[in-house]
Amino acid sequence: VESAVGEFRKALSDTASAAYRNQAGVLYRKLFQPLSGFLKTNRLTIVPHGSLHYLPFGALYSGKDYLVDRARLRMLPAATVLKFLENRPGPNGLRMLIMANPNLGDSRYDLKYAQAEALAISRLTPKATLLLGDDAKASVMMIRAGQFGRIHLAAHGVFDPEDPLSSALLLSKGDGDLGLLKAASLYNLSLAADLVTLSACETALGKITQGDDVVGFTRGFLYAGASSIIASLWKVDDRATMDLMVAFYSRLSTMPKDEALRAAQLDVKARYPHPYYWASFQLTGNAN
Fold first, then answer.
1. Taking the model in full, what pTM does it have?
2. Spatial separation of the C-alpha atoms in residues 246 and 234, rounded to whole Å
3. How many whole angstroms separate alpha carbon 236 and alpha carbon 217?
């Protein structure tokens, strides 16, 4: 299975090829086909083991359809997380912090579609605080994040596989910091957030510990008090991510989070059929 996961992720990086379907089929047959006669719901909670933490389950392929076509998915880093999620808050008056396209001092790192994404989401959320460019500072997250019921971060992210707690979101410098929101710093936050969305690269990745939990952004935000986190498994496409995020938030007022994410992924899949464009983002934590 570990080898198949690695081959699948490698194949997904080639958006001009359908070769990924071979490994997607292998993994489907190993992981889901034996269960197909026993599943009585299309709302699935998955607690992955080992390398399966890095698997985009929604992209598993039966030969006729993908798992996302059949089911709403949410992930948990460990089953023990459930007891900590029971009393997590709902949206704090729906006040929302949106930070996007931080100024990294080099125009090559500008995220045009991330800024458009943030503006579109702010229009869907009247109580949003929108911080763009120079205003999208790491210090703002550390000082003000606890004031918001939802947080959306659209920025570059870097994953350090040797030291996952040094993985970081790249935000604007200022107020005495270097603009790095490191995974380690999340353990100093106290959040009341119903949802944290990391519209960035590789934010769902982490290092598997001996207890089979994942050290990284998702665990850090859960520890800080967030109820749900949406994060990505690889370097995402800027334009397709904008479309997915706007579709997700436009449904969030009428759907649970897992259903809204699935519907958004199906929207993007209709325009960009290759799973690279729509399968990266996963929901961890509360599904409602």
1. 0.91
2. 19
3. 16
